[in-house]
Specification:
heterotrimer; A mainly alpha; B alpha+beta; C alpha+beta; A: 5 helices; B: alpha+beta; Cytochrome C3; 9 helices; 24% helix
C-alpha cells in the first residue's frame, strides 16, 4: 500500500485492523441512534458523534434486563470504545463522564453475568 | 529482650491505653430536618469558606435519586465525589442545575461558585457554604412537610407514599443530562428471609426502589451478587453502610424502623 | 544502657501508665452505690440554660409513670445520655424534643400540657421554673414522696414493673401526632444468659418484660446489635460503663446493684 511506504508495518497493520473492525461493526450499531448530523467543523462533528453515541448507550439501561447476551456484550464493547475519547477531556468533564460510563457499563456487565448465571 | 519485642510490647500497650469503643449505647438522633444532611468539605475550608451543608429533603422532593446519583454523577458518600468550584462553574455536579439559568418549579436556580462576586453575593455562597453559620434557610421544613404523610424516624415523612399520592413529583429526567430512556421494565418483588427467629420476612419491592433509583444506582456497585440468595447481608453489614445500608442509614428511612422492611405478615 | 533502649523503655513506661489509668477508669469492679430513690433517674441538662433561666432538672419518675420509655426515646427521639440530644429552646418551640408534648395544646388527662420555652406566655403564666429548677426550691408541681406514695416499692425505690403489672400506673404507649401505629410483632421467648463466672447465677432475660416499656426499636439495633445469640459478650464492666444493659440499668431503670433483678431469686452463687 502507498500508506505502508511511510509508516512501519506494525502501525499499518493496526490501522487496517481498526478500519476493518469499525466497518464490520457499524451495521450492528444501527439499532441505536442514527448517524450524527453534520454541523460546523469536522472536529465539532467528531465531538458530537461520540457524545451522541454515549447518550445512545446510556439510554438503554432501563431495558437492560430485556436484552440478549449478545446485545449486552455489544453494549459493553461500545462503552469500552468510548473510553479513549473520554480520557482526552478536561479534568471536570473526564471526572463526570467517566463516572457515568462506569455506572452504565457496570450495569450491562452485571446483567450479562446474571443472565449467564441463570443458564447454569 | 530484643528490640523487636520491645517495640511490639510498646505498641500493644499504646493501643490498650488509647482504645475507646462505644457500641451498646443509643446515640443522638438527628431531628427530622437534619436527617439526610451531608457535610462536604473537600476544599471549602482550604478556600476559607464554611463547609457545604447539603440537605437531602429539599432535593429529593424535586428529583429522583437517580437523576443526581447516576445522571449527574454524585457519589453516595460525603466527600467522595470530589466536587471543585471549577466543576460547578463548568456546569457539572451542583453546577448542572445551579447555574443561574435552569428553572425548577418556576424559579431560576441560583448559580453555584462563580469566580466574580460582588456586593451581596457572599450571601449566595452562604446558602450552601453554611456549616457553623447562622444562615436563614430559604425553604422551611415545617411548611414543606405539613401536607405530606408522616412516618417514624428519619425525616418523619413517608416519601414513598408522598410520591405515590402525587404530593411530590420528583423529576426523572434532567434535560441535557439524562439520556432519553424508555419506560421501565419492572423487576419482580421477592422475599428475603432473616436469620433471626421471630423477625418477619422482608418483602423486597424492586418497583418501590426503581421509582427512585433506576437500575444503575444499585447494580453492581451496591449489590454485586447476580444470583439471588448467594450474598448474605447481615444487619451489622447494613448498619455499616453496606448493601441496603448505603441509603438506609443516613438518607432514606433509617434502620431503626424495622417494620418498614420486615413486613411479611407472620 | 544504649540511648535507643532507654528511649524504648521510657515509651513502655508511659504506655504502661496509660494502660493502668484506663484500666482503673473503665474496669471498676463494682457499680457505685445508687443515689437516693428520689434522686435516681434524675437528669441535669444545663448545656445552654445554665447562664439564662437555670439548668433543667428532668426526673424520670414523673414521666415514666405516664408514658412508656418507647414514647420518648423512640417516637419523640430523645438520646439515652444526658446532654446528648441537643435540646434547645428553639427545638422545643418547633415541636421537637420536650416541645413534642409540651406545646400548650396536647392534652393529658383532659388538661393541656404547659408549653416549653414558649414566647407566647408571659408574666405569672410563665412556667419556666417548673423545668429550669436546678438549685431552686418550691418551684416544682410534683414532689417525689407524695407522687410515689401509693406505688409498690422495693429496696431501690419504686418497683415500676410491678406497678405496671398491677395497674397502679398505666403508661401510655401511643401519643397522637407523634407515634405511628405499627402492626404488633411477636415477642421473643425468654432465654438464659450464662455468666462467664461459674459461681454467678445465670440471667433469665425476659423480652416480654422489656417490650412492654421499650418496644423493639429502643434497644435494637443501636444498643444491642443483632448477632447470633451467645456471640456478643456483655460483660458487667460494659454495663457499669453505661453500655448494653447499662444503658438503662445504670441510672434509670433499676440500678445494677440490685443483682436479684437480673440474676434471679435463687442464691447468687449457683451450685
Amino acid at each position: 500500500m502507498f500508506f505502508a511506504r511511510f509508516f512501519p508495518p506494525k502501525f499499518t497493520a493496526n490501522v487496517v485492523a481498526v478500519m476493518l473492525l469499525v466497518g464490520l461493526t457499524a451495521p450492528c450499531g444501527v439499532r441505536a441512534v442514527g448517524l450524527p448530523q453534520s454541523s460546523a467543523s469536522q472536529a465539532d462533528q467528531a465531538k458530537e458523534a461520540w457524545q451522541k453515541e454515549f447518550d445512545a448507550v446510556r439510554s438503554k439501561t432501563q431495558d437492560a434486563m430485556t436484552f440478549s447476551e449478545d446485545e449486552l456484550t455489544e453494549l459493553i464493547r461500545r462503552c469500552d470504545a468510548l473510553l479513549p475519547q473520554i480520557e482526552k477531556l478536561d479534568e471536570s468533564r473526564r471526572k463526570v463522564y467517566l463516572g457515568r460510563l462506569a455506572k452504565c457499563r457496570g450495569l450491562y456487565a452485571y446483567v450479562l453475568e446474571a443472565k449467564k448465571n441463570e443458564k447454569k | 529482650m530484643n528490640k523487636k519485642s520491645f517495640i511490639l510490647l510498646a505498641l500493644i500497650l499504646i493501643l490498650c491505653g488509647l482504645a475507646p469503643s462505644q457500641t451498646g449505647t443509643k446515640k443522638k438522633r438527628p431531628l427530622p430536618y437534619e436527617y439526610g444532611r451531608v457535610i462536604i468539605d473537600n476544599y471549602s475550608s482550604k478556600a476559607e469558606l464554611a463547609p457545604v451543608v447539603f440537605e437531602h429533603w429539599i432535593h429529593r422532593s424535586k428529583f429522583t435519586c437517580r437523576v443526581c446519583h447516576v445522571d449527574v454523577g454524585f457519589a453516595m458518600k460525603a466527600g467522595a465525589t470530589n466536587i471543585t468550584s471549577a466543576d460547578n462553574e463548568r456546569g457539572f455536579y451542583c453546577g448542572t442545575c445551579h447555574n443561574g439559568k435552569t428553572v425548577v418549579d418556576g424559579k431560576v436556580v441560583f448559580q453555584a461558585c462563580s469566580r466574580k462576586t460582588a456586593g451581596d453575593d457572599l450571601r449566595r455562597c452562604e446558602r450552601c457554604h453554611s456549616f457553623g453559620l447562622k444562615v436563614a434557610s430559604e425553604y422551611d421544613f415545617f411548611h414543606f412537610s405539613q401536607p405530606l404523610p408522616k412516618e417514624r424516624f428519619g425525616n418523619g415523612l413517608d416519601w414513598e407514599k408522598s410520591e405515590e399520592l402525587g404530593l411530590i413529583k420528583p423529576a426523572r429526567v434532567l434535560e441535557g443530562v439524562s439520556p432519553r430512556g424508555n419506560s421501565l421494565a419492572v423487576q419482580k418483588d421477592f422475599v428475603l428471609n432473616p436469620k433471626v427467629e421471630g423477625m418477619p420476612d422482608i418483602i423486597f419491592s424492586h418497583k418501590k426502589h426503581t421509582v427512585w433509583n433506576g437500575c444503575e444506582l444499585c447494580h453492581p456497585d451496591i449489590f454485586m451478587g447476580v444470583k439471588r440468595g448467594t450474598t448474605k447481608y447481615t444487619m451489622v453489614d447494613i448498619s455499616q453502610g453496606k448493601a441496603c445500608g448505603a441509603c438506609h442509614t443516613t438518607v432514606a428511612f433509617p434502620l431503626t424502623d424495622c417494620q418498614r422492611c420486615h413486613t411479611k405478615p407472620v | 544502657m544504649k540511648r535507643n533502649e532507654r528511649g524504648l523503655l521510657l515509651l513502655m513506661l508511659v504506655c504502661g501508665i496509660l494502660f493502668l489509668v484506663n484500666a482503673a477508669k473503665a474496669q471498676v469492679y463494682l457499680p457505685k452505690a445508687p443515689p437516693e430513690p428520689s434522686e435516681y433517674g434524675k437528669v441535669i441538662l444545663d448545656t445552654y440554660s445554665a447562664a439564662g433561666p437555670g439548668g433543667v432538672v428532668f426526673d424520670h419518675w414523673l414521666h415514666r409513670s405516664m408514658f412508656t420509655c418507647r414514647v420518648c426515646h423512640v417516637d419523640v427521639g430523645f438520646a439515652m445520655q444526658a446532654k446528648a440530644t441537643g435540646i434547645r429552646a428553639s427545638t422545643n418551640r418547633e415541636g421537637f424534643h420536650c416541645g413534642a408534648c409540651h406545646d400548650g395544646k396536647k392534652l393529658y388527662e383532659g388538661k393541656p400540657i404547659f408549653p416549653a420555652c414558649s414566647d407566647a406566655v408571659s408574666g405569672s403564666d410563665k412556667q419556666c421554673d417548673r423545668c429550669h429548677s436546678l438549685g431552686k426550691k418550691g418551684v416544682r408541681k410534683y414532689e417525689y414522696k407524695d407522687f410515689v406514695a401509693k406505688l409498690p416499692k422495693d429496696m431501690y425505690g419504686v418497683n415500676w414493673q410491678v406497678a405496671e403489672q398491677s395497674g397502679a400506673i398505666k403508661p401510655l404507649d401511643f401519643v397522637e401526632g407523634i407515634s405511628v401505629k405499627k402492626p404488633a410483632m411477636k415477642s421473643r421467648e425468654d432465654f438464659f444468659v450464662k455468666s462467664g463466672y461459674s459461681w454467678v447465677h445465670p440471667i433469665a432475660f425476659s423480652h416480654e418484660k422489656h417490650v412492654i416499656w421499650n418496644g423493639c426499636e429502643l434497644c435494637h439495633p443501636e444498643i444491642f446489635p443483632t448477632a447470633q445469640k451467645g456471640t456478643t459478650h456483655y460483660s458487667m464492666f460494659y454495663n457499669i460503663e453505661g453500655r448494653y444493659c447499662g444503658a438503662c440499668h445504670g441510672k434509670v431503670a433499676f440500678p445494677l446493684n440490685y443483682c436479684r433483678g437480673c440474676h434471679g431469686n435463687g442464691p447468687l452463687w449457683a451450685p
